[in-house]
Write a structure and sequence with these properties.
By secondary structure, this protein is mainly alpha-helical. The chain has a domain at 51-102: F1F0 ATP synthase subunit C (F1FO ATP Synthase), CATH 1.20.20.10. It is built from three helices and no strands. Helix 2 (36-68) packs antiparallel against helix 3 (73-101). The radius of gyration is 20 Å and the shape is flat.
């Protein structure tokens, strides 16, 4: 298992290395319309709204599952927290992209 995790980590690092090889971007000309910031804010709004809907659905399903099977509460709670973390990372990544676009 350690070998697989090490290979996965090395693969992710190898895929991310071209990102650091980029040169500086040219500054846009004065007076040109730049829609990057507006689109980044729109993307942040959509991501935050959909994350809220997804988290609400996940919590509702978790509560229903715990009510139906109280013996599996620990496993359901773990899956809920893991799922909420994955949902929340979408909003955080979109927030980072918004700050980069600014």
């Amino acid at each position: 298992m350690k070998n697989r995790l090490a290979m996965l980590g090395m693969g992710l690092i190898a895929m991310a290395s071209p990102m650091f090889a980029q040169g500086a971007a040219a500054a846009p000309a004065a007076g040109s319309s730049d829609w990057r910031l507006a689109m980044a804010y729109l993307a942040m709004g959509i991501a935050a709204g959909l994350c809220g809907l997804g988290q609400g659905k996940a919590v509702a399903s978790c509560a229903e599952g715990m009510a139906r099977n109280p013996g599996a509460s620990a496993a359901i709670r773990f899956a809920l927290i893991l799922g909420l973390v994955f949902i929340e990372t979408l909003a955080l990544y979109t927030s980072v992209i918004t700050y980069i676009a600014h």
